[in-house]
Amino acid sequence: MPLLEYKNKKPQIDPSAWVSPNATLVGDIKIGPNSVIWPGVFMRAEYAPISIGQYVTIFDGVMMFTRSDKSPIDIGNYTIIETGTCIFGTFMTDYITIGENVLVNERSSIGEGAVIIAESTIASGMIVAERAIMKGNPASVIREQSRNDLLKQKERAEHYTEMFIRMRRKLPNLQPYAITENALLRELITIKERE
Questions:
Q1: Distance between CA atoms of 125 and 63, rounded to whole angstroms?
Q2: Confidence (pTM)
Q3: For residue 95, what is the DSSP state?
Q4: Domain count of the chain?
Q5: Exposed e or buried b per residue across 67-77, where buried means at least 16 C-beta atoms within 10 angstroms of its C-beta
Q6: pLDDT digits (tens, 9 = 90+) for 72-93
Q7: 161 in any annotated domain
C-alpha cells in the first residue's frame, strides 16, 4: 500500500488495523485500532492531520483531503463511511454512518450517532445534531435515531472489523482487496464451519 511521507510526516497505522494494499495514504494520518480501510481509499493530509478512531470502516473509493490548516479531519470510533464519499474537513464523534456518495464540506461537525443518507451534502460549517438522520442537498433532518439504533451501529461497526480479523487469521494468503463483500461472507461461513 502506498504510505507516502509529506512535510516529514508519514501515516501511522495501528498494528490491529487493516489497510488495503490498493489504498493510498499521504502525510499526517493516524489509523486507530481495529479499523479497516478498503481498496481505492485516498487520504491526503496536506495541510492538517487526518485522524481515524477505532473500529472504523472506510469503504472503497472514499476520498479525504485537508485543504486548510483550519480543517483537519477527525473521525470518531465505530463509524462507517460508505463507498464514494468525499470528506474535505470535519469533526465526527462516535457511532456515525455516512452513506454512499456523500459530500462532507469543511468546518462541519457531525454529532454522535448521526446518519447521513446516500447522495447527501453536508454544507461547509454545518453542525449535525446527535442521532439526527440527514438527507438532501444541503442535508436537513428527516428524523432522529433512538438509543437502541446507536447500539446497533456499534455492533455493525464491530462486525466489519471482526470479518477482517478472522480472515487474516484463518486465510493468511487470501488477498481481501481482490474479492467482493459477498465472497468474503462466503469465506467466513466456511471458516465458521471448520471451527
A1: 19
A2: 0.83
A3: S
A4: 1
A5: eeeebbbbbbb
A6: 999 999 999 999 999 999 999 9
A7: no
